[in-house]
């Protein structure tokens, strides 16, 4: 819907993972001036790990939900496709 709205000239603000504004908002919520000590934890390479990486956070992939059924080969392909690699070992 947002893309269609943009095509008609509307202004759209994307908020949520993997967009940086979500991480900025989260850091304000916990009264931190920097995201440097944050940890992004999630099951999505594209959204959780990619977004956390773009925000400068340490990232941890959990192998449940979205990534739970991916083979190691497919997971590796997703990491390379999105340029997003978890910093901490996956759980």
How are the SSEs ordered, and which strands pair?
Blueprint: H1 2-7, H2 20-29, E1 39-42, H3 45-54, E2 58-61, H4 65-68, H5 72-82
Parallel strand pairs: 1-2
* Gyration radius, rounded: 15 Å
Helix content: 40-55%
Number of DSSP strands?
Answer: 2
Low-confidence residue ranges: none
The span between the termini is 35 Å
Largest sheet: 2 strands, parallel
H/E order of the elements?
HHEHEHH
Task: Please state the structural category.
Answer: mainly alpha
Strand order of the largest sheet: 1-2
User: What is the overall number of helices?
Assistant: 5
Beta-strand fraction estimate:
5-15%
Mean pLDDT: 86
Net shape: flat
Report a brief summary of the structure.
With 91 residues, this protein is mainly α. It has helices at 2-7, 20-29, 45-54, 65-68, 72-82; strands spanning 39-42, 58-61.
